[in-house]
Structures are given as C-alpha cells and as structure tokens.
Write a structure and sequence with these properties.
Keywords: Magnesium, Membrane, Transmembrane, Transmembrane helix
Number of domains: 2
Strand content: 15-25%
Structural class: alpha+beta
Order of helices and strands: HHHHEEEEEH
Transmembrane segments: 21-50, 62-81
Domain Cation-transporting P-type ATPase N-terminal: 4-45
CATH superfamily of the largest domain: Calcium-transporting ATPase, cytoplasmic transduction domain A
Domain P-type ATPase A: 96-147
Shape: rod-shaped
Distance between the termini: 44 Å
GO molecular function, one term: P-type calcium transporter activity
Length: 176
C-alpha cells in the first residue's frame, strides 16, 4: 500500500538545481580582470622573448607567468568548489526535519521526505507545515502560533502549492 502511494503521488521533495561542476569554477576564476591582464602580459612576453632569444630560451618568462596564472586559477577554483560542496552538505543537514505522523494507525516519527498523501501529521508549536493538507482537528490554530493540530496530507513535493510556485519562479528566472 505504501509503495503504491509513493508510485501514484511521488515523494515529498522539490526539484533542485543540479550542482555546478569544477570546470564552472575554473571558468569563473579565469574571469578575474587581474588574471586577464597577466595573461595579456604573458602573451606579450612570450612573443617578445621568442622573437629576441628564440625558442625555448625566450619563452621562459612568458611560460612562468602562464604557470602562475594557472596555479592561481586552480587554487581559487578548488577553494570555491570545496566551499560549494560544504554548503550543499550544510543544506542537507538543515533539511533533515522530522515530524510526528500517524500512518497505518500507528503514530511515528517520519522524515518530511517520507510523508505521503493519507498520512496524518501532528503539528506542534514551532513546526513548519511540511506538505499541503486538510485541517482535521485542533484548537487555537493561528498562523505561526499553533497550539497543536492534526492535518491530513493531500499533496507532496512539486505538486504542492509551494512546489508549483517554485517551478514558476524557476521558469521565470531561466527566461532572463
């Protein structure tokens, strides 16, 4: 029964942007104005050196500048890439949210990503609403200040109102 619900309704996850690869960070590092000036200087140095002293002796200074540029680019790109991976790991940890839910007649602690339509979620003070649903029971329920209530999950993941909004926003941003 649980597998069938997952198959029909999907999982409670939103579509995420694919992570950027290492080469994107290399490209961004190459966009630095100082490095562009250095690259121009390296080219001039190579041309002048080869014309005056010949190959390979005249290329030493120019190749030294190129090596310095490549070192700076790869160190910068590696640092930025590692930071992005650490940020992604932090985001995953931040999203590890559990809620109390009743499934198949048993109250249990579930990850918000395991929720499916038909589950009853017990919302307490400070909880975020993890999916779209119908108010089943509760008292003194106010936005951001609920005492406690029960909600029947009706929609999860990209089919929720939040998921639809995120898809529209993503589409609008990709057009610009």
């Amino acid at each position: 029964m649980l597998h069938k619900r997952k198959e029909i309704y999907g999982v409670n996850k939103f579509a995420e942007k694919p992570s950027r690869g290492f080469l994107v960070y290399v490209w961004e590092a190459l966009q630095d104005t100082t490095l562009m000036i250095l690259a121009f200087c390296a080219l001039v140095s190579l041309l002048v050196g080869i014309m005056t002293e010949g190959w390979p002796k005249g290329a030493h200074d120019g190749l030294g500048i190129v090596a310095s540029i490549l070192l700076v680019v790869f160190v910068t790109a590696t640092s930025d890439y590692k930071q992005s991976l650490q940020f992604k790991d932090l985001q995953k940890e931040k999203k590890k949210i559990t809620v109390q839910a009743t499934r198949d007649g048993f109250r249990q602690k579930l990850s918000i990503y395991e929720l499916l339509p038909g589950d009853i979620v017990h919302i307490s003070i400070g909880d975020l609403v993890p999916a779209d649903g119908l108010f089943v029971s509760g008292f003194s329920v106010l936005i951001n200040e609920s005492s406690s209530c029960k909600m029947l999950v009706t929609t999860v993941g990209m089919r929720t109102q939040w998921g639809k909004l995120m898809a529209v926003l993503k589409e609008k941003w990709s057009m610009h």
